[in-house]
Structure formats: C-alpha cells, structure tokens
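can u do me a favor
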C-alpha cells in the first residue's frame, strides 16, 4: 500500500498497524498518515489526513481487477488539512488529481473504475490554509463526505466538500455557536478567489 501511494498518488502513506479481514471485506489501520508532496507547501501542510483509526469496507477484494468499490470509509479522531497554494490548487487537489490521472494511463480495454460510496470522519479537526496562512480550524463531531468516483474532477469533488462546511462554519461563527477559529478577512478573500 505504501508503494502504491508512492507510485500512483505521489504521496506518503504511513500506518502503525494494518489488518485485512477478508471474510468481512474490511481493512483496518491504526495511526494513519497521508501526505502529498506538493513542492509549494511545507511538510506540515502536505499532511492531508491524520487519523487514529480507519476502517475501509467494501468490494475492493473482488476478482474484478478493473472495478474497485468501497462501500464505506470511517476515520476516527482525525485531522483533515486542506492547504491551498493557488487558485484551484491544494494538497487535496493534488491527491485527487493523481488518483484520477491513473485512470487515463491505463489501457482503454480495461480502465479502472473506482468508487467510494460513503466516507465519514468522526471527531475531526478541519483546517483550511491559503498561501501558508491559516483561514479556519474547526472541530466537528462528524464530517460526511460526498460519494466520489473516477469521473469526478478535483474541483467538483472538493467543492462538494468544502463549500457546505464553510457555509456551516460561517453561520455558526456569526451566531457565536461554534468553537471554530476563523480569520473572516482571509476567508472572504479566499472565497472570492475560488468562486
């Protein structure tokens, strides 16, 4: 898995413990770290995901080598860092673009069709940075991520994640109902640029 992340995603994937339960179609990992290698970002901002545990469930062990279906991914006690370094450019974009680009390099007769139906981060800290500067940091009890598949673009998918979360955080911050730390000025500039 570490070699695949290295060669297919240009990313570093580390874990302390990994267990595959074939009867249940589950993969369980503890102390997980996933980092990109974007040269415009420092090492800390390249760390996209950190989680105490991750469970992956689905039909990813099937004999069909060109079809990868993940029914559910659950990350617990996690930190998700989205670090932008330019318009439409972030560590998350780099990771997603690498996953989608892999499809285009495969033979047309057997392209990889992949899909992640449900993803949930429990007890997650979401950090958003722009040009190395923090915009917001918020702890959420649950963050449900939308379905993802090989036909998505990075911008489409990240918009489906980021904009609803930003809207929720801004609304909560305006009414004083949030433990979020938000730089409203930088957030406003970020939203204007990215829209």
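np, heres the sequence
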């Amino acid at each position: 898995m570490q070699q695949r992340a290295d060669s297919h995603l240009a990313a570093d994937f580390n874990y302390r413990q990994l267990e595959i339960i074939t009867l249940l179609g589950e993969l369980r990992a503890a102390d997980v770290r996933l980092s990109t290698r974007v040269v415009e970002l420092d090492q800390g901002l390249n760390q996209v995901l950190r989680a105490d545990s991750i469970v992956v469930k689905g039909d990813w062990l099937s004999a069909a080598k060109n079809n990868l279906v993940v029914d559910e991914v659950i990350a617990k006690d996690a930190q998700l860092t989205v670090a932008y370094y330019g318009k439409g450019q972030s560590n998350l974009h780099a990771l997603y673009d690498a996953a989608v680009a892999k499809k285009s390099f495969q033979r047309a007769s057997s392209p990889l069709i992949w899909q992640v139906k449900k993803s949930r981060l429990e007890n997650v800290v979401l950090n958003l940075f722009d040009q190395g500067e923090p915009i917001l940091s918020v702890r959420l009890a649950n963050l449900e991520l939308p379905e993802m598949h090989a036909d998505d673009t990075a911008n489409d998918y990240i918009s489906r994640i980021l904009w609803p979360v930003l809207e929720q955080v801004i609304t909560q911050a305006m009414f004083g109902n949030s433990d979020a730390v938000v730089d409203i000025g930088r957030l406003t500039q970020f939203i204007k640029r990215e829209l």
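The first strand starts at residue 11 and ends at 14. hope that helps!!
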